[in-house]
TrEMBL record, chains A, B:
Record-linked InterPro entries: HTH_LacI, Lambda_DNA-bd_dom_sf, Peripla_BP/Lac1_sug-bd_dom, Peripla_BP_I
Region Disordered, residue ranges: 292-320
Sample GO molecular function, one term: transcription cis-regulatory region binding
Entries under CDD domains matching the protein: HTH_LacI (cd01392), PBP1_GntR (cd01575)
Keyword Transcription applies: yes
HTH lacI-type domain: residues covered: 1-41
Highest taxon of source: Bacteria
UniProt-recorded name of the protein: Substrate-binding domain-containing protein
Keywords: DNA-binding, Transcription, Transcription regulation
Coiled-coil ranges from the UniProt annotation: none
A Pfam family that the UniProt record links to this protein: LacI
Protein's organism: Aliiroseovarius halocynthiae
Length: 320, 320
DNA sequence: CTGAAAGCGCTAACAC
DNA sequence: GTGTTAGCGCTTTCAG
């Protein structure tokens, strides 16, 4: 009835009745039931956001970007965490889709077949984020991790380093880290160079792991003159370790990480890194959903935004 | 009809029909509509989680605790972020309640009157987390930040420090930081000691800010022999700064932070801190909601769990 | 064990 | 401008 109209600021209602309704609503402590509303209107202002983890700052930062633009709209994000587990991803996705959200933002391009079918069948905007190396179901915004790996390899070679070590996570399911690694070794291979040593970790404090791994690797392969870390946190650990040991960085050994986390600003020396454009990705993805959910005929589709991460050479990647 | 029964594994359905239904559901790619289900059953398996921020690791860690226990139940968390803004908190809360969740987990004990009324009127379990210094609406799990501040002050005094500086965030709305500060100065006052200097920051990289603030303060008040940081990140920045400057820690100056973040493990020296029991808080809060949402008559109510944070004295808070 | 029927609290379309 | 009506897609209750 009329009440519904005023509560949603729709069309013709006289000021008098409007006031009366608002008054009543307030005194009764009335909170509309969105479930009923959604069912009736076939519209749910929720955006499903599916990410692998909350345990490092990267996804929370993406969330912040998403929040920023969704705040300007009636849309609300609902997040689900998969722990890098395809099974869980499938389940979380199913749960979310059963709420008939206005769109979904999901990390990565790799999903189980079932997940892909659900996404395709959902008939809502789907934005796959963080990665552009592969085929998207619908829209896609991110960076090319393969290209990022290549770019860093080139910069390192150009700076004159030759004996390069790689340190990363032991995560077969972190496809983005894997792609960076592939791009990285690819460029090295072209120059006839192979990774001199490599080390992988899982669990624990990344900073501490970075220290440990660096120690182990330097002991095992003393001729190393560069270490490429698959994320800034272990890179920072490595940097702190080197400084502790009185190792000249980058004189004796150069270092680089990946992500461009804010944390690096406070380190004794600025670690070379590459900005993964996390907030920007969140913002762009949310924008796509917001734009499309406004339209009627789902005009858009298949948007593809590839951001280009830039190297922040810091002080740990200098020409020798 | 029957279909509904098999999809929910309810009561008496013959294996034959069950199979037939499952079969049909699969081939049709049927995903049940939870909105309709929720409306009909008056049951929504969502738990609203309202937190101030995602920008440091503390709340993501609480989330992980919540996820852990909710994963074992049909309940699903939905998070809302307030940016420490009571206005936003009110709005976010309103939005969430309009989905009629099974419970709400909300950070802090300080809310606007409107927010409090909504929470009281909602008729669902409400767990206020992180803080126990004040009056809870319903259940409450956290630590006493006032007590935490007092405890740290005692430890510092006992270790023989006299000229103490405080460094924290410029956040009038971070009640927990404020309470820690109050507890801290209270104990000092009892011993006839006043904070020698203080400094507050906002925005930017906490690690970098920690460095800057430490530098500024040491210049301004050279007689300081201890610095108490309101979080570990700025504490870590301070520690790195001191080490850079060749300042003997804790010989010349002692340091302590707050939170017990994992990051500290990788630092050149272990910063003294106090574990805020974040994951544990998340777990306990989720458990309360889970337990109560199982019962019919909302048996429980008013649970109050106060965890006691322990000092991890690290290497930067040693008897002089 | 299975079907039919009556809502859940709203929105949308249509009268008044 | 305002009231009325018919569903939205399920769950629930009650008959068969």
């Amino acid at each position: 009835m009329t009440v519904s109209r005023v509560l949603r600021n729709r069309g013709d209602v006289s000021q008098a009745t409007r006031d009366r309704v608002l008054e009543a609503a307030k005194t009764l402590g009335y909170v509309p039931n969105k479930i009923a509303g959604a069912l009736a209107s076939q519209r749910v202002n929720l955006v499903a956001v599916i990410i692998p983890s909350l345990s490092n700052m990267v996804f929370p930062e993406v969330m912040m970007g998403i929040n920023e633009v969704l705040d300007e709209t009636p849309l609300q994000p609902v997040v689900g965490v998969t722990n890098y587990d395809p099974q869980r991803e499938e389940k979380v996705l199913y749960e979310m889709l059963s709420w008939r959200p206005s769109g979904v933002i999901i990390a990565g391009l790799e999903h189980s077949d079932a997940a892909k079918s659900m996404l395709k069948a959902a008939g809502i905007p789907v934005v796959e984020i963080m990665d552009t190396d592969g085929e998207a179901i619908d829209a896609c915004v991110g960076i090319s991790h393969r290209r990022a790996g290549r770019k860093m390899a080139k910069a390192i070679l150009k700076a004159g380093y030759k004996n390069i070590g790689f340190l990363g996570t032991k995560m077969p399911l972190d496809h983005r880290a894997r792609k960076r690694f592939e791009g990285f070794t690819e460029v090295l291979a072209k120059e006839g160079i192979e990774i001199s040593d490599r080390e992988f970790y899982e669990g624990g404090s990344a900073l501490a792991k970075g220290r440990e791994m660096t120690e182990v690797m330097l002991e095992r392969t003393p001729e190393l003159d560069f270490m490429y870390y698959s994320n800034d946190m272990i890179g920072a650990g490595g940097l702190l370790y080197c400084l502790d040991q009185g190792i000249n960085v980058p004189g004796q050994i150069g270092l680089a990480g990946f992500n461009g986390v804010e944390l690096l600003d406070g380190l004794p020396r600025q670690l070379a890194t590459m900005d993964a454009c996390r907030k920007e990705i969140g913002r762009a993805a949310a924008q796509i959903i917001a734009d499309r959910s406004g339209e009627s005929g789902d005009t858009g589709g298949g948007e593809r935004i590839e951001l280009s991460p830039k190297i922040a050479a810091g002080q740990t990647l200098k020409r020798r």
